[in-house]
Each structure stands twice: as structure tokens, then as C-alpha cells.
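Sequence, please.
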């Protein structure tokens, strides 16, 4: 996020994400997430996150919408 890149996770329980901290997110009941950072002056100021309780495949249009809202 600090690099200004959107994080798109379809399933926080995916074994490929082991050791990344997403197990803690999954423990909260969040299975899919989309996090869009807003940098101001190169610094992370805001993080807009959208969550789903079940596996969810984010479309490019959904990602673009959340990125537009974040800006």
C-alpha cells in the first residue's frame, strides 16, 4: 500500500498467501478484499478497503470504481 499499489485478494485463505499476515484478516471473517491506497506527497494518507465474507473474484471494472472513489 505504501508504494501506492492496489491490493486485490480474492481469497485470504489461499495457501499461496501463507505467512503474509492475511490469516489474521481471514480470522476476522474477511475472505476477499480490495484495498486502494491514496498517497499525498508520496505518503500513505488513506486506505479505502472493500471486503467480502466469501471468495470473490474482483473484476477490473470493480477495481477501477474503487480506485476512482479513493481519489
Amino acid at each position: 500500500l505504501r508504494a501506492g499499489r492496489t491490493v486485490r485478494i480474492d481469497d485470504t485463505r489461499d495457501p499461496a498467501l501463507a505467512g503474509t499476515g492475511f490469516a489474521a484478516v481471514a480470522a476476522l471473517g474477511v475472505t476477499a478484499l480490495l484495498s486502494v491506497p491514496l498517497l499525498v506527497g508520496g505518503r500513505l494518507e488513506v486506505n479505502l478497503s472493500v471486503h467480502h465474507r466469501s471468495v470473490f473474484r474482483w473484476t477490473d471494472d470493480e477495481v477501477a470504481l474503487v480506485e476512482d472513489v479513493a481519489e
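Strands lie at 7-9, 32-40, 43-52.
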